[in-house]
Amino acid sequence: MSRFARFLAVDWSGAKGARQKGIALAVALAEGGPPVLVARPDPKGWARAEVLALIAGLEAPTLVGLDLGIGLPHADAGAFFPGWDASPKDARGLWALIDALCTDNPHLEAGGFVTHAEAGRYFRHGKGAEGDRFLLPGAASREGRFRVAEIAQRNAGVRPVSNFNLVGAAQVGKSSLTGMRMLHRLGGKVPVWPVDSLPEHGSVVTEIYTSVAARLGGVTGAATKIRSFEALNDALDLLGSPPVKGSGPIDDHSSDALLTAAWLRRVHGMRDLWHPPGLTAQVARTEGWTFGAV
């Protein structure tokens, strides 16, 4: 029997605005059945504060997967921001710093952080517009810095983008920074694995990468987005999940959330996913990890 009653997947968004159509939530029940989308509180989409309130108020023990980075690279340089004396010592310090520098940004946006005179030096802001500390000295690649978990993802055949990159359709930097503001505001109400130890009871928040779930769902090739109910149900079948109702097109935010909720239900009991080889105590405390990356 699962120690979790529910599996909640959150496809997140770092876009500006009060409400985001790019945010989708889906739940799979431990007892079985197809995953189900959580209804938007408003036709214009979810507010990030509403997702925060939902997670903070969970009653049934729930494994929450957030499709965003819960940390920034640290292991490669021994610091999040090498050369900046305000660089935090751990992930919770990072979340607090981001939130503090974004006090004037509404809707958990993160513009105040990436435009900060010092913090902004570490990000790629546009084509040909890189901060002078976006790359470490002698960097072999122009892609930017990666966390240990992201290197594990790449070794497994998926292609995460550096969280210091704010450019392009595949970037997750803005989502990650807004998500870290949410984690800070969560205030320890729900443990965030592996920054926090995995508790024996209650709900837990984890980082997920929907492409990892899509791989197990049989989605192959460079693109891992699902845009039809038929393709979604084929993937759900490979995860041992009943199909969802519908036919024809489906937006990829909804399909990501639905597929990943079913994936969490399927794989959460695999011990190796909670104990990947690269997850040292120092990495857990600073960078965090992506559940499913080994």
Write up this protein.
With 294 residues, the chain is α/β, with parallel strands linked by helices. The chain has two domains: 6-70 and 186-274, Nucleotidyltransferase, domain 5 (2-Layer Sandwich), CATH 3.30.420; 91-183, no CATH class. It is 30% helix and 10% strand. The protein has ten helices and seven strands. It has helices at 48-56, 91-101, 111-114, 148-155, 173-186, 210-216, 229-238, 252-267, 271-274, 281-286; strands at residues 6-11, 24-29, 36-37, 62-66, 124-126, 129-130, 204-207. A five-stranded mixed beta sheet has the order 3-2-1-4-7. The chain has a two-stranded antiparallel ribbon with strand order 5-6. Helix 1 (48-56) packs across helix 5 (173-186), helix 6 packs across helix 8 (252-267) and helix 7 (229-238) packs parallel to helix 8 (252-267). The longest helix has 16 residues, at 252-267. The chain is globular, with a radius of gyration of 18 Å. This is DUF429 domain-containing protein.
